[in-house]
């Protein structure tokens, strides 16, 4: 069994360079790779393209990279919680490629499975389809969408073992699984890293073949974007 465990986030992100394309798991602030993002901030890499469902908030998640002007382009689906994102987009400082959420997920899955492209009806007749091949199937029009190409995928899981097998918990099982194996190198940070054989094979969501490096994360904040609670009666 190949041991994919590395000692820390610094080793896990070895090889990260300016101008690369990164995939980052998470939905809102749920299940984001906090340690990897923090290391990207520390490294100060610039001119990067980030593929993520959203861009975090102003002072957390990918919002930290935006504050430092490290991101050249964002490929996202929902970006409504970040004022700095809005400012950079409207000023022309940030290139933005808005993608339907299902298409974003499928572009990740296509890359994971080794498919170069796929047809989808989403976006036909809109700006999303401009410059792309379209084709009719059974009387319905479809848009040809290419699979993503990324240098690194950064994902966060609840549990993992040294072979790279991963288990996600709750809503953190969002874009993380489909980004595993969808880049040249997948880096997984986990809340609990266990020995090989400690995970129930029937509970594993992503097999280790999709992961190249895994490490034990630390100091997770697990913020909630908009906390709503019921008032006491």
UniProtKB/TrEMBL annotation:
Keywords: Transferase. Belongs to the 3-oxoacid CoA-transferase subunit A family. SUPFAM superfamilies: NagB/RpiA/CoA transferase-like. One of its GO terms (molecular function) is transferase activity. SMART domains: CoA_trans. NCBIfam families: pcaI_scoA_fam. It comes from Asprobacillus argus. This is CoA transferase subunit A. Transmembrane segments: none annotated.
